[in-house]
Specification:
heterotrimer, A alpha/beta (257), B mainly alpha (432), C mainly alpha (449), A: 257 residues, alpha/beta, Rossmann fold, four-stranded antiparallel sheet, 34% helix, B: 432 residues, mainly alpha, MetI-like fold, 2 domains, 17 helices, disordered N terminus, disordered C terminus
């Protein structure tokens, strides 16, 4: 059997301040092409888990293998190389508000550029063409020269997707991509993610709040509670009892249509 | 799609009634503000560009000061026409800042003919002034163009060097840089700057080898400086705190009180706009020779009173009316309202402002000393006149230490008064 | 549980280095107050009733040099006596009562488990303190190395079985009114002493103000009726070697504004790159970064606290007295420090989201600054630069006093001539320009913010 695309081994993260344990010995693996949804309460360690993969947060112990490479041991220069192939989408979009949509999209290309070219903002013709293509793919080609803060929330998140597409990623990390959006927009954003997963074969790790979205889009679900892995299986396996176990007894499931 | 002309209300108000006239004036004001402010911005920028260019050129060429090489009327008409042309035939900077552009019916691109009509009629369209409130201006109606919101979207905008505003801004920058540096830095200056470091070297040498035997005298003058600042702050607070109640708009409602308000505000804002150093010069003449610290203190005092009264009364104007109402409702007198509703709200900001003023006064008192206002500033000036640099160095270090120390202390204390007590923090820390 | 056989040896230990530091600050506060009282009363005594020399205090009443600086000189042994006496008084105050310093930092003297401290313990503290003060540096050093506060407290804490700890007010008792506490009395005494002493030190004399009203009226009237004859036409009498050209008031005013502008532009040019090195969030990720950060911040703070006028003095000697460039250079140095600090505080307060996004795409540190930081901070940088220009114009009007050039030359020239109506014209021009720039920069900052 070939080794899995992404493998976590005893991943642990302890925040120095206040001695909060965010992740406790989390181990699992993800195959190439999966759409993995991570669920759990706020503060259960979903964001920390995702950020440990591209080391926006340094793990305290344990290993993460991306395509057979232990990313926890890489030097910062080599880590940058790895990050180029890992796209990330954020809850609050993290766009540069005062720059144009095109510049925001092009910033996905920064990992491939030399320092002086990026300092002067000299993107190549091909990059620009690719950016326009990717914006067209998320339906925003007519907003290319608008400023990012002139866009609505859903549009901004689509710019975030276009930025991730620019990286031509193998792996996409999405940290609550729809929790700042309204339900109708949520589905359109999730559909773009699904499209990337199915057409481009990108492995997607998404942390989500709504179980209905997780069931609809995920091929596999894991649940975290208090930093520990407490469920790993297909979406259909989560029933009422499991739900209560993950979210606590007082939780009610909310449907997003 | 909504046409840009829809913004206008076509129903003119009845000008014969007072209300209608007032309404028309209000609309006119709004309209003027949105039409004229881009126009004036363009006007000012073009004027500045011309003045700077003439100033710089005449300085560099003839070594003389000229602000405009042409007669004033030519200058005025010239900039007006330039701006009119610019706004008709391109997107001017004012419009760019306001994110507006010139567009035809249903957002069509303006034709050349339309632009010419727009430009020519521009000159007469200002005459039916009041009508502008509810009608589009003449030149817009006849040319069929109107000023519309500029939407940036799919097309690539032209690079800055191909837009008129970009070129103007670049020209302006170049003119500012060229004029500024040619006026303030002459070629001779550079020569001296590069050839004379040995002169400054003497000072630097003194700075690194100060005459430490002088410290006691310097410290005593430093203390004099500190006392000037402390006295000015203390007495300033004592005067400004009661005065601020008469300078707060919300506490002065009766006509007599309002008169006081206007008077106090007017006088104090005049006092504040004169630099303390100028006050020191005046007071030096007043108190006569040999009383330098007193003159410096008076200069600081005047400024402190003016500044503190303004800060205090602004704080008073923003107090919450809820507690005042509550105490009044329980039947409290004017004094008890003051004591239980107003003072608790303002006491901490007042302390914080006073500390801030103390900080400024310490800085100021060293400067005021330099014109002869006493303290370490005056000592520094005397030592420099006598070329005793190694003793002056001690003063420089003392001033730097004092300013740094007071700056840190006052910002710490201010944070404390703004945030609340340290004690509670500490208890929470220990119990945690 | 007695202090001696107490199993819990943390009972009178300071809970953290922070509280130890606060305790020290409180001690210093008490010390300064007591010292202030002592020195001030010695000074006042000598000023009003002093003869030539009393046991180590030398009072030079008739010496002009000493009178200019200070009439009070202490022999060196007297200095030690005063310092030592102060120390003793402070220790007494802190041991037998709740001093201002303890109160200000929320401390009080407590025994084991917050118990009452009896007179014997208090006296022990006073007696042991002089020995303890010799040991405490050593004690602190070892505890810093061991990374925990001295376990058994400082020596006098340990011996007396009491310590200065966080004060918790008994919930049943009402708080005393401030006027009835030690603090209140000290505050009132301090305030009155300060005003009295200040009055003596600055040699205030209200009689002079009244006696010389005529003098003042003449000057004020002249200033109030400004003479605008040289407003646009240069005054041929006024001639400075730095200016081969004839300058009118308005010409010099323009020159002053341009000087401020040049200083602001050059200053901003240097402050811009430095501000990134002085921003905690960008630099404090590794040790080298932290060193650079501290260095740059220290530079900003140091150069900010040295006044522009002092720099003018240096550059006036270097470049030439009255040369505008000397003023510009002085303003530049102060501007770099002041703007650099403002800029880097702005960089510290940016939204970290875009930085994270660019980091996640594999961007390097330069790319983060170029694409994540700079677009966010441009507007506030512009606003601060404009604000600085405003301040620099104010400063540029007075730097001529020590040879910096600009409109101040004219002001001080006319002042020395005693031509007060010309002074009035210059002051009016200064006010007009300062007001206008203040207004414009205020409006533009409002727009940008």
């Amino acid at each position: 059997m070939s080794q899995p695309y992404l493998r976590f081994e005893n991943l642990t993260k302890v925040y120095e301040r206040g001695q909060v344990v965010a992740l406790k010995n989390v181990s699992f693996s993800v195959e190439k092409g999966e759409f993995l949804v991570i669920i759990g309460l706020s503060g259960s360690g979903k964001s920390t888990l995702l950020r440990c993969i591209n080391r926006l947060i340094e793990p305290s112990a344990g290993q993460i293998f991306v395509d057979g490479v232990d990313v926890t041991q890489l030097s910062s220069a080599r880590m940058r190389r790895v990050r180029r192939k890992i796209g990330m989408i954020f809850q609050h979009f993290n766009l540069i508000n005062r720059s144009t949509v095109l510049t925001n999209t092009l910033s996905g290309r920064l990992g491939y550029m030399s320092a002086w070219r990026s300092l002067l903002g000299l993107f190549t013709k091909e990059d620009k063409k690719l950016a326009i293509q990717n914006l067209a793919r998320v339906g925003l080609e007519d907003k290319a020269y608008a400023r990012a803060d002139e866009l609505s929330g859903g549009q901004q998140q689509r710019v975030g997707i276009a930025r991730a597409l620019m990286q031509n990623p193998d792996l996409l990390l999405t940290d609550e991509p729809v929790s700042a959006l309204d339900p109708a927009t949520s589905h359109s954003v999730m559909q773009y993610l699904e499209q990337m997963n199915q057409e481009d074969g990108v492995t997607v790790l998404a942390s989500l709040h709504f179980l209905s979205l997780a069931r609809r889009y995920g091929t596999r679900i894991i649940a975290l509670k208090g930093g520990e892995l407490m469920f790993d299986g297909s979406p259909s396996e989560i029933d009422e009892a499991k739900f209560k176990e993950i979210y606590g007894d007082e939780a009610e499931e909310v449907e997003v249509r | 799609m909504r046409s840009p002309a829809d913004d206008f209300q076509y129903q003119p108000p009845n000008l014969l009634t007072l209300e209608g006239f007032g309404e028309a004036l209000g609309m006119l004001r709004k309209r003027m503000a949105e039409r004229l402010s881009p126009f004036f911005l363009d006007l000012v920028l073009v004027a500045i560009l011309w003045v700077l260019i003439t100033y710089g050129v005449s300085w560099i060429v003839w070594k003389e000061v000229h602000y405009s090489l042409v007669p004033t009327w030519v200058f005025l008409v010239g900039i007006l026409e330039t701006v009119a042309l610019w706004e008709s035939f391109g997107q001017s900077l004012g419009y760019r800042v306001a994110r507006k552009t010139l567009l035809g019916e249903s957002r069509a691109k303006p034709t050349f003919r339309q632009r010419i009509v727009y430009y020519l009629l521009f000159h007469i369209s200002v005459f039916p002034i009041i009508g502008l409130a509810w009608k589009r201006p003449l030149h817009e109606r006849i040319s069929g163009l109107s000023v519309a919101h500029n939407v940036r979207g799919g097309e690539k905008p032209a690079p800055w060097y191909r837009t008129s505003s970009g070129i103007l801004v670049a020209l302006l920058m170049a003119a500012i840089l060229a004029t500024t540096f040619s006026v303030t830095i002459e070629s001779d200056t550079w020569r001296r700057f590069l050839a004379n470091p040995s002169k400054a070297g003497r000072i630097f040498k003194a700075l690194v080898s100060p005459d430490f035997s002088f410290w006691q005298d310097a410290v005593f003058k430093l203390i004099e400086t500190i006392y000037m600042a402390i006295m000015a702050t203390l007495i300033g607070v004592l005067v400004a705190a009661p005065l601020s109640f008469f300078a707060a708009r919300n506490l002065t409602r009766t006509p007599v009180a309002r008169l006081f308000y206007t008077l106090i505000r007017g006088i104090l804002s005049f006092f504040r706009s004169i630099e303390p150093i100028v006050w020191a010069i005046v007071f030096l003449v007043w108190v006569g020779p040999g009383r330098n610290p007193f003159a410096g203190f008076l200069a600081l005092l005047i400024h402190s009173i003016a500044d503190l009264t303004k800060l205090y009364s602004e704080r008073l104007e923003s107090i919450e009316t809820g507690p005042v109402e509550a105490i009044t409702a329980t039947g409290g007198s004017w004094l008890s309202v003051l004591r239980y509703a107003v003072i608790p709200q303002i006491i901490n900001p007042y302390i914080s402002f006073s500390l801030y003023r103390w900080d400024i006064n310490i800085r100021m008192s060293t400067i005021v000393g330099l014109v002869g206002g006493g303290g370490i500033g005056q000592l520094l000036l005397l030592l420099l006149r006598a070329q005793r640099f190694s003793q002056a160095a001690i003063c420089v270090y003392l001033i730097a230490m004092l300013v740094w120390g007071i700056d840190t202390l006052s910002s710490r204390l201010r944070r404390y008064y703004e945030r609340g007590r340290i004690i509670q923090e500490e208890v929470a820390e220990e119990s945690a | 549980m007695s202090a001696k056989n107490s199993g819990n040896r943390w009972q009178y230990a300071p809970s953290s280095f922070r509280s130890l530091w606060k305790r020290f600050l409180g001690f210093m506060l008490d010390w300064s107050i007591v010292y202030y009282f002592l020195h001030a009363s010695m000074y006042l005594y000598l000023v009003f009733w002093g003869s030539q020399t009393i046991a180590g205090w030398n009072y030079y009443k008739n010496d002009a040099y000493a009178a200019f600086f200070n009439p009070l000189r202490l022999d060196s042994w007297m200095w030690w006596l005063v310092l030592g006496g102060t120390l003793l008084l402070v220790v007494l105050l802190r041991s037998f009562g709740r001093s201002l310093g303890q109160r200000a930092f929320g401390f009080s003297l407590q025994g084991v488990e917050r118990s009452f401290v009896n007179a014997i313990q208090r006296s022990t503290r006073v007696i042991v303190f002089p020995i303890s003060i010799l040991f405490s540096p050593f004690q602190l050093l070892t505890s810093v190395i061991r990374k925990r506060p001295p376990g058994r407290g400082l020596l006098h804490d340990h011996v007396s079985g009491s310590s200065i700890r966080t004060y918790i007010h008994p919930s049943g008792l009402p708080k005393k009114r401030i006027w009835f506490t030690q603090w209140g009395w000290i505050a009132i005494a301090l305030l009155s002493l300060t005003i009295f002493l200040g009055w003596v030190i600055i040699d205030a004399n209200l009689g002079v103000l009244i006696n010389r009203t005529d003098e003042a009226r003449r000057v004020f009237m002249d200033i109030a009726t400004p003479d605008f004859s040289h407003f646009a036409v240069p005054d041929p009498v006024f001639y400075q070697r730095a200016y081969p050209q004839m300058f009118s008031i308005i010409n010099l005013m323009v020159l002053t504004v341009l000087m401020a502008l040049a200083a602001t532009l050059i200053g901003a040019f240097f402050a811009f790159p430095l501000s990134f090195l002085g921003a905690r969030n960008l630099m404090c990720q590794n040790r080298t970064g932290y060193v650079v950060y501290s260095f740059i911040r220290g530079f900003f703070n140091l150069f900010r606290s040295i006044e522009t006028l002092i720099w003018v003095i240096v550059f006036a000697v270097w470049i030439g007295y009255g040369n505008p460039f000397a003023g510009v250079m002085a303003l530049v140095i102060h501007t770099i420090a002041a703007l650099g600090k403002l800029y880097s505080e702005q960089v510290e307060s940016i939204d970290s989201g875009p930085i994270e996004a660019i980091l996640a795409t594999g961007g390097s540190r330069f790319q983060i600054i170029r694409f994540g930081v700079i677009p966010q901070i441009i507007p506030s940088f512009l606003a601060f630069t404009l604000y600085r220009w405003d301040i620099n114009v104010r400063m540029a009007t007075i730097i001529a006093l020590v040879g910096g050039g600009g409109i101040g030359d004219l002001l001080f020239y006319y002042r020395n001539q005693g031509d007060w109506s010309q002074v009035g014209a210059v002051v009016l021009a200064m006010i007009a320009v300062v007001w206008t720039l203040d207004y414009i920069s205020g409006r533009v900052r409002e727009r940008i913010a």
